[in-house]
Design brief:
Belongs to the 3-oxoacid CoA-transferase subunit B family. InterPro entries: CoA_trans_fam_I (IPR004165), NagB/RpiA_transferase-like (IPR037171). This is CoA-transferase. It comes from Streptomyces doebereineriae. The strands form 4 sheets. Strands 2-1-5-10-11-12-13 form a 7-stranded mixed sheet, sandwiched between helices. The mean pLDDT is 93. It has a single domain, classed as 3-Layer(aba) Sandwich (Glutaconate Coenzyme A-transferase). The chain has 238 residues and is of the alpha/beta class. The protein is globular and about 45 Å long. Helices cover 25% and strands 18% of the residues. Strand 1, helix 2 and strand 2 form a beta-alpha-beta unit.
C-alpha cells in the first residue's frame, strides 16, 4: 500500500509524544493534531488532550475531565505539557520566530506576534512542525527569538526540544552543542535535498535512516478514523 508524504509526516509528528506518559498534548496545526490523536490511540494511551476550552477529552470527543485555566497554567509552567508549534523561522539551536520578518522596529512582514512561545519553550517540552521546508524558514539566525532555543535556555529546568518535523524529514538536537541534526528523511527525499533547502550547516550522520513506515493499523486509523476526509493532503502535497 502506497504511503503518502503527508502520512509520513503524521507518523513523524506522532512519534514526538512517544514515551511522554501522562502529559497534556497540545498540537497546533492539522498534521500535528492527527499525529497526537494517532499517538493517543496507539503507543501513548496516557496522553491528555483538551478541547481547547475547559475540558479534557478522549480521541472521540468523550469528556474525560475538567481542565480549568489555573490547572492548565500549572501544566504549562511545570513541564507537564508537550506542545508542537509552527515556525516562520527556526535556526540551528531551535530558536523560533513567529513574530516578524526583518528588524522588529521596522519589520518587512508582521506575523502572529510572540504569543505564548517564550512560556511554552522555557517551561515545557516544545516540538515544531514546518509544512514547507525552505531556506526562508530554516535560517542561520532568526530575526526575533520567540520560542527559546538551546543557546538561550540556561537555567530553564523544563526546556527541551524533542524534534522538528518538516515535509522533508525529522530533526533533533542530539549533538554536543545542541545544534540541529538530521535524524531521518522521508522516503523519496535525499540528504542533498535537505541540505539545499536549509540555510545553515546541519549536523548529518554518516548514515541517515528513512522516517519509519506506518503500520497497517496506523494507516487504517489515519485514513478511516482520524482523518477520513484526507485533510492532511492539503497541508502536505505528494
Amino acid at each position: 500500500m502506497t504511503v503518502t508524504r503527508a502520512e509520513y509526516c503524521v507518523i513523524a509528528c506522532a512519534e514526538a509524544w512517544r514515551g511522554d506518559g501522562e502529559v497534556l498534548a497540545s498540537p497546533m496545526g492539522l498534521i500535528p493534531s492527527v499525529g497526537a490523536r494517532l499517538a493517543r490511540r496507539t503507543f501513548s494511551p496516557d496522553l491528555l488532550m483538551t478541547d481547547g476550552e475547559a475540558l479534557l477529552v478522549g480521541v472521540d470527543g468523550t469528556v474525560e475531565g475538567w481542565l480549568p485555566y489555573r490547572r492548565h497554567l500549572a501544566l504549562v509552567t511545570g513541564g507537564r505539557r508537550h506542545v508542537m508549534m509552527g515556525a516562520s523561522q527556526i535556526d540551528r539551536y531551535g530558536n523560533q520566530n513567529i513574530s516578524c520578518i526583518g528588524d522588529w522596529a521596522r519589520p518587512k512582514r508582521q506575523l502572529l506576534g510572540v504569543r505564548g512561545a517564550p512560556v511554552n519553550t522555557l517551561n515545557n517540552p516544545t516540538s515544531y512542525w514546518v509544512p514547507r521546508h525552505s531556506r526562508r524558514v530554516f535560517v542561520e539566525k532568526v530575526d526575533m527569538v520567540c520560542g527559546v532555543g538551546y543557546d538561550h535556555a540556561d537555567g530553564a529546568p523544563y526546556h527541551r526540544i524533542p524534534r522538528v518535523v518538516s515535509d522533508l524529514g525529522v530533526f533533533d538536537f542530539a549533538t554536543p552543542d545542541h545544534s540541529m541534526r538530521l535524524a531521518s528523511v522521508h522516503p523519496g527525499v535525499t540528504v542533498a535535498q535537505v541540505r539545499e533547502a536549509t540555510g545553515f550547516d546541519l549536523v548529518v550522520p554518516d548514515e541517515v535512516p528513512y522516517t519509519r513506515e506506518p503500520t497497517e493499523r496506523e494507516l487504517r486509523l489515519i485514513r478511516e478514523v482520524i482523518d477520513p476526509q484526507n485533510a492532511r493532503s492539503r497541508e502536505v502535497g505528494a
